[in-house]
Amino acid sequence: MAKKQKTFRPKPRKPRGFRDRSGAELLAEQEMLRRITAVYASYGFLPQETPAFEYTDALGKFLPDVDRPNQGVFSLQDDDEQWMSLRYDLTAPLARHVAEHYEALPKPFRRYQVGTVWRNEKPGPGRFREFTQCDADSVGAAAPHADAEAIMMLTDAVVAAGVEKKDFAVRISSRKIMSGLLASIGLDTEDGGQSGTVLRAMDKFDRLGAAGVKLLLGEGRKDESGDFTEGAKLSGDQADQVLAFMQAAGADNAKTLDAMAGLIGGSETGLAGIDELRGIAETLEAMGYADQAKIDPSVVRGLDYYTGPVFEAELTFAVTNDKGQEVQFGSIGSGGRYDDLVKRFKGVEVPAVGCSIGVSRLLSALEAKGQGADDTQKLIVVATPDRSRMADYFQIAARLREKFSGHNVAVDIAFGAANLGKQLKYADQRGAAAVIIQGEDERAKGEVTVKDLILGAKLSEEIESNEEWRSGQPAQVSVPEGDLEAAILKTLAFRD
């Protein structure tokens, strides 16, 4: 007798760095996005969408190697054997769009976009491989005024998203000034080897401090696990100049810029960067943003396409990670100038600046701090104890939806189990505020029963006996059908 073949049943599981999301979390994200995009729109930016997939060579940094694209992106080959990649961010697709439609677009082209991006990188606390970004960019706008606007807009958007001003700061620097610093210590800024190692070391200043960065600028550093990172092999004097630059922050933006200028020598590129940041700082001062947005020499943006001012919105409070350790959450938004990005397609320089907010990361940070976005939507469930009267229950639901339109109230009908007890359990599972019940007895009297689940749950913790509970029934009231809307208003503490 032939052996019966076992049916394959895949294990339900997700890849690392990816999440299922639903309910309150998505409602919170939608509300956050509404607030952020309202700020972008108030500055005159219009919405845009681009495809999730782009040809890999259009992404700029991640070009195909011999057999397949570089690490960092999720890629596949099309049926014509061209490599395509899920977009790494929303800026590279924007550059492709501008180059493709350059003649028809107004200059500057000002757009915002909300979309999912994917990064094939190691996940960590609050860091996912799939997440939502919310960008705004001005293409065709020169420095420094468009850059100052982007910084102000980013600041306004983070505040609108629910972060208190005391809990974040926008830190500003410039890739031009970084280039001037590297040139002043004798490095070839066009050679990404040693210069890139120096910049990567500088980018770790917040985490490793001056001592750790100095090791990385020299021979190298061994971490706590024993892994050794090769250093930039700078001389002692070169390393000291880099560290002095990173610690050049003064009492205000003007003093910081003076100190930075004194450490980059006569570099023409570096001094041009200083002038741009002075223009930005003056605008921020005049508009009242100088306390929130600070020039910070230690900011080193990681993406290669930045060409001028760069900035990061960084949370300043600590959160607890999976190991129970308190850590700084770090950056939740960033931006900068990328005048060469469209040039890859057009062959001519097109000035551009933009900002981006990692919405998924920001939501995680607020949740970790206990400041998750308030889910203010109230749910009302209409019970269906008599399935022969479903049309009546639909009418009750329609009346309530019409009445509470604009009040962020949802009305659900209990279609599941016919048993009323199970319908009440369903309402509890949904987190409903109230249940509407009209069985045979209520209908005969021309009444409906409104059961306040939130008050009922609270009172059930306080009332010690069933007799005490039955004597009051404070969380359940029967009213004439015509008074249903008023009873719901009272239950939800709304005013008509």
TrEMBL record:
Cellular component terms (Gene Ontology): cytoplasm
Domain Aminoacyl-transfer RNA synthetases class-II family profile: 30-385
GO biological process, one term: histidyl-tRNA aminoacylation
GO molecular function, one term: histidine-tRNA ligase activity
Enzymatic reactions: tRNA(His) + L-histidine + ATP = L-histidyl-tRNA(His) + AMP + diphosphate + H(+)
Keywords assigned by UniProt, alphabetized: Aminoacyl-tRNA synthetase, ATP-binding, Cytoplasm, Ligase, Nucleotide-binding, Protein biosynthesis
Origin superkingdom: Bacteria
Location within or outside the cell: Cytoplasm
Record's compositionally biased regions (Basic residues): 1-16
Entry-linked PANTHER family: HISTIDINE--TRNA LIGASE, HISTIDYL-TRNA SYNTHETASE
UniProt subunit comment: Homodimer.
The name this protein goes by in its record: Histidine--tRNA ligase
